[in-house]
Amino acid sequence: MKKKLLTIAAIGAAASLTLAGCSGDGMGGTGGGSDSGNAGSGDKGTITLGFLPSWTDGLSTAYLLQDQLEKIGYTVEMKTLTEAGPLYTGLAQGDVDIYPSAWPELTHKSYMDQYGDDIEDLGAYYDNAKLTIAVPEYSELNSIEDLVGKGAELDGKIYGIEPGAGLTAQTQTMLPEYGLDSEYELVTSSTAAMLTELKSATDKQEDIVVTLWRPFWANDAFPVKDLEDPKGAMGDPEALHFLGTKGFAEEFPEAAELIEQIKLDDAQYGSLEDLVVNEYGEGKEAEAVDAWLEEHGDQFDWVVS
Q1: Rg value, the chain, Cα
Q2: pTM over the 0.85 mark
Q3: Is the torsion defined by CA of 182, 238, 92, 74 positive or negative?
Q4: Is residue 143 a contact partner of residue 180, using CB atoms and an 8 Å limit?
Q5: Angle at Cα 170 formed by Cα 101 and Cα 176, nearest 5°?
């Protein structure tokens, strides 16, 4: 349990830092220089990575890209935000150069419909991401259909993440499809808050329903299981993409070429996220990436050492 407590605290701290810096620019994020120990000369230009610290897929791949891009001569700036909307806005406006773990096919489709003309797809690095509704593994519930009529037992709540998340929008679409909208409230706040509720419930062996996604370290850190989705209301599996601002590949051709080559399977991705989020934690992301590259680097043609 100690690791889980530390992890949740780290995510909460990262989210708090991000919120505290929201007045830093017009996007609701904070501009910051690289703190990696691998910084190169930067003679090829400066690339800004925009990500949400509480969404650990993007957190992990942001630091992986920082490491690799700095090693081939770029200066990398990290810009943290708290919501997907401002991140897509910043990407479309050129305030952010790369979103290092986007879900453009389904989860973020509404943002792509709005901003896609000013965004460049730099390639997908993972192809089996999905949105889920989850309960503790000790729960008797096995399907979203099983939630019908159980609202009173579950306090009428499904605990979600940020209000502007694609997962939140998809869950709001799912509820009426299963007839759950009159029985349950989707409680939104932050990923850290949802994980705190999940930890509290599972520590006490109590029932709880949360919104989750895969890949995400919490699926292994907590005793949870996905509810079956016979109606397919949470959507089909999709790929995780690197997105760039329009014209990125033309301005940074070597960076685009490197990014396009990055492909991760479940084991490789899971190891990266676990090292960045759990084993090393906040402030030691660059060390975590170094450790991951030492373990997995020889599996890839694209790794810059």
Answers
A1: 19
A2: no
A3: positive
A4: no
A5: 175
Residues 255/76, Cβ–Cβ less than 8 Å? no
pLDDT digits (tens, 9 = 90+) for 293-303: 999 998 998 88
Residues 257-273: tens digit of each pLDDT: 999 999 999 889 989 99
CB 69 within 8 A of CB 76: yes
Q: Is 226 strand, coil or helix?
A: strand
Q: What residues form DSSP beta bridges with 48? A: 77
120, 260 contact by CB (below 8 A): no
With tokens 């989210």, the residue in question is 15
Q: Which two tokens stand for residue 156?
A: 């009428």
Instruction: Report the C-alpha gap between 42 and 70 in whole angstroms.
Output: 7
Length of the chain: 305
Which residue do the tokens 């685009």 mark? 256
Q: C-alpha dihedral over 103, 198, 59, 120, to 10 degrees?
A: 10
Per DSSP, 165 falls in state -
> 266-273 and 285-296 helices cross at what angle (nearest 10)?
150
Do 286 and 66 contact (CB within 8 A), yes or no? yes
